[in-house]
Amino acid sequence: MHKPKEEQRVTCLPNELLQLVFAHLRIEELLVVGCVNKCWRHNSRSNLLWKRITLSVSYAGIICRTIGQRTINLQPTFTSQGSTQKTFQTTLRLIPASRNLLKDLKTQLIQIEALDTPWHDVHDNTLLSFLAAMPNLKSMNLNHCTQLSVSLIPFLPTMVPHLQSVDLSYTHMDDAALRFLASQCRNLVRLNVSQCLRLTDEGVVEICSTMADRVVALKLSACLGVSADGYRKVMQTLALRARKLKLLDVSRNSVSKINFDALLEFATLRKNSLQHEQKRNLAVDILGDGSEFTREEVQFVQAADPSLTLIHNARMASHSKDGVKEYLETLMNANNYTH
Fold this sequence. Notes:
By secondary structure, the protein is α/β, with parallel strands linked by helices. 39% of the residues lie in helices and 18% in strands. The radius of gyration is 23 Å and the shape is elongated.
């Protein structure tokens, strides 16, 4: 019995061409096309395809983010053209994470390097079950995952030893958990602990001391448990030792914590302690809550260390185009959970 010509054309495509097509599919679509025949199943499970996937999970299973979009109306806002603004809300769908699914995708999950689950209702046990299948994970975004506890942290160094980037902002992590993470995850170079209210001076200073020689991006925005003295010690440590640092976020703090004297001391220490060939250009986000620095203060600090780019207000009016462009590129790299 002969197959229709149309079916023959599709099923006879070279493996390389099939994988190019499958590279544009989402995870749930890859699972569907893998049910067509053995050839498609083999190509849909290619390690190269799954290595580029950013997995997102919740307590109920794997999240499919972009199944469809529907328009929703916001509160009427009249623009210069007099029109009402609209936005789009992504429709989510879940693939239940059964034991059979995890077993079936064992080879593919090993290839995944990025886990992105911000704002999702994920618990320790669920997350650990996925991490056990993803030993090559390099980046993990757990922003606003408030159901996670500090008990999760001791498992990370052994389960995901290649971890390089972690976002734990707006979670309930404390000093002990974050100290353990910084000391035991030796490849960790990007850390976001913004709005971790249980973080104190002692914890943040020890974390910075542990990671100073390797850290590339560090975000300590709005850590209300950290005092002005704590931030000052952090900036002193980073100025003296952080040769690889490209992004430091100490924004959303009052002027009593991050002030002109602290910034000037940071710039002066950094310029004097690190030779020009040893240090990289550094973007420092100091955008405050109603405590913006003046143009003259920012220029004075940047004159003390020309390699600094200070982000001190929403318009970034005092920066050159090159400085703003470099900061935005640095910010994108620091938040890149794909690779």
